[in-house]
């Protein structure tokens, strides 16, 4: 039975794929709490959820019994400083499990731009100082938020010390020594929101999300602010997919779990609108490594749709059969046949920030 | 000793009964009041010890002046109210 976690503005919902169809058992966890990230750790089944309480800040919770009960843990904290403008945690944007050889290791990407690591299942956290002090970070800036943030953390399943991160706005950064040193990737990405002559600066790129093909971690997909890009060398160099209809703008990308040439995207009209093009909600799919795309729309609203899909709200399960998509206006859809047909699970959930299939 | 009282909105997330604590400043009183519960502290102050942007602290009926260092002087019978600011939504 598949399980889908839905992180929303008003709590964490659970949906189960039962013989009678998808059902949401019980009430949401953290009712009224805005969920910003969720991780279902494939190594030990632990669940991690971060909340952003409007008044009381970012909070972190872990469940060791599949969501029946939750333990609050200290959230990652920036180093103590006397500077009145010293950095403080705004919220956790993403989690990533460490490698199979690192039980209990969890990474957290945050605003205002810090990468944190826990080796104790979230009980303690340490800021990755080499990245925090890396030359060039002073050029990072916020996109949609006041400060830059890390939204993508890709741990190489072949080598846990090889990690690629995506920063909005700060580009793609790569470590091959577990975070002791970092190199700036993202060569070939293109931005049109900076002065002429700086469009190719890899440190000024806004990769909305980067995601690796599970069967080929060197194949990384990027839904960038300015289009769709593909890397075949682990994020160092990229080439752009052109002619993507109905739009190359969007936030999310979900690689197919078994086919390195397939990936799914959720296009929107750029830039200030951020709505489905012509108010028709579609998913776009490439099956040839980004050379061509087709739209998938069967079961999705084809008129008067104002659903925007955030970067962590389009996901595939491990088999590739299931896809799920959630929107800012509370629409939740699943596909049981790789995107050919979509089923509406709810049209009136709270705004959805993130989804995660149980491994 | 001063008395610290917390908004019921905070109590929804953490046990936060009214507590008596000593100190010459709001920072000192809160430090004693939060002793043994770093998580409760994190709901009111950020990791730099500053009052969270959307939390208000009242000292004897008035908003404190120093949200960075919480240096406002506290009297022996002062009352401190920790409330959510409406600005936080």
Describe the 3D structure:
With 359 residues, chain A is mainly β. Chain A has one helix spanning 129-132; strands spanning 3-8, 11-18, 21-23, 35-40, 47-53, 57-63, 71-73, 91-97, 106-111, 115-118, 126-127, 149-155, 163-168, 171-175, 183-184, 207-213, 216-224, 227-231, 239-241, 250-255, 263-267, 283-286, 294-296, 314-316, 323-326, 332-335, 343-346, 352-357. In chain A, the strands form 7 sheets. A 4-stranded antiparallel β-sheet of chain A has the order 3-2-1-28, with no helix packed on it. The longest helix of chain A has 4 residues, at 129-132. Chain A is globular. The relative contact order of chain A is 0.12. Chain B is of the alpha+beta class. Chain B has one domain (2-88): Ubiquitin-like (UB roll) (Roll). Chain B is 21% helix and 24% strand. Chain B contains 3 helices and 5 strands; from the N terminus they run βαβααβββ. Chain B has a 5-stranded mixed β-sheet with strand order 2-1-5-3-4. In chain B, a hairpin with a 2-residue loop joins β3 (55-59) and β4 (62-63). The longest helix of chain B has 8 residues, at 26-33. The mean pLDDT of chain B is 94. At the A-B interface, loops of A face α3 of B.
| Low-confidence region ranges of chain B | none
Please estimate the helix content of chain A: under 10%
What is the strand content of chain A?
35-45%
**Gross CATH architecture of chain B:** Roll
Secondary-structure-based class of chain B equals alpha+beta
Read across the widest sheet of chain B, the strand sequence of neighbours is 2-1-5-3-4
CATH class of chain B: Alpha Beta
Tally of DSSP β-strands of chain B: 5
What is the terminal-to-terminal distance of chain B?
A: 33 Å
Tally of extended strands of chain A? Answer: 28
* Overall pLDDT of chain B: 94
**CATH homologous superfamily descriptor of chain B:** Beta-grasp domain
> Which radius of gyration of chain B do the C-alpha atoms yield?
12 Å
**H/E element order of chain A:** EEEEEEEEEEEHEEEEEEEEEEEEEEEEE
Q: Please report the two chains with the greatest interface, counting residues with C-beta closer than 8 angstroms to the partner's C-beta.
A: A-B, 17 and 22 residues
Structurally, the number of domains of chain B stands at 1
Number of contiguous helices of chain A: 1
């Amino acid at each position: 039975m598949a399980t889908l976690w839905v992180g929303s503005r008003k709590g964490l919902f659970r949906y189960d794929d039962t013989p009678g169809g998808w059902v949401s058992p019980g009430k949401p966890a953290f009712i009224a709490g805005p969920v910003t990230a969720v991780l279902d750790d494939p190594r030990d089944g632990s669940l991690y959820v971060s909340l952003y309480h409007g008044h009381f800040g970012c909070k972190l919770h872990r469940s060791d019994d599949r969501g029946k009960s939750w333990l609050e843990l200290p959230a990652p904290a920036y180093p103590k400083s006397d500077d009145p403008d010293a950095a403080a945690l705004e919220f956790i944007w993403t989690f990533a499990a460490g490698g199979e050889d690192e039980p209990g290791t969890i990474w957290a990407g945050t605003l205002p731009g810090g990468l944190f690591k826990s080796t104790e299942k979230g009980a303690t956290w340490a800021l990755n100082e080499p990245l925090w002090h890396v030359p060039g970070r002073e050029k990072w800036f916020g996109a949609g938020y006041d400060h830059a943030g890390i939204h993508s953390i890709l741990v190489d399943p072949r080598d846990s010390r090889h990690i690629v991160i995506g920063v909005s706005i700060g580009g793609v950064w790569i470590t091959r020594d577990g975070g002791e040193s970092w190199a700036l990737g993202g060569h070939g990405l293109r931005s049109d929101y900076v002065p002429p002559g700086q469009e190719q600066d890899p440190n000024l790129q806004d990769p909305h999300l980067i995601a690796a093909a599970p069967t080929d971690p060197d194949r990384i997909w990027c839904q960038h602010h300015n289009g769709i890009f593909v890397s075949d060398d682990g994020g160092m160099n990229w080439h752009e997919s052109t002619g993507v209809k109905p739009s190359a703008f969007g936030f999310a990308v979900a690689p197919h779990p078994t086919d390195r040439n397939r990936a799914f995207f959720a296009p929107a009209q750029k830039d200030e609108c951020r709505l489905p093009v012509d108010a028709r909600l579609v998913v776009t799919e490439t099956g040839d490594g980004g050379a061509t795309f087709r739209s998938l729309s069967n079961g999705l609203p084809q008129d008067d749709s104002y659903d925007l899909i955030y970067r962590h709200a389009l996901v595939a399960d491990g088999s590739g059969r299931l896809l799920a998509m959630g929107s800012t206006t509370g629409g939740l859809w699943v596909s049981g046949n790789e995107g050919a047909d979509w089923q509406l699970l709810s049209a009136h959930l709270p705004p959805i920030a993130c989804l995660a299939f149980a491994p | 000793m001063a008395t610290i009282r917390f908004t019921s909105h905070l109590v929804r997330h953490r046990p936060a009964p009214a507590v008596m604590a000593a100190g010459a400043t709001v920072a000192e009183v809160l430090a004693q009041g939060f002793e043994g519960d770093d998580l409760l502290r994190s709901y009111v102050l950020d990791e730099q010890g500053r009052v969270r942007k959307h939390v208000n602290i009242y000292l004897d009926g008035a908003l404190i002046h120093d949200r960075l260092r919480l240096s406002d002087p506290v009297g022996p019978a002062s009352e401190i109210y920790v409330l959510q600011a409406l600005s936080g939504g």
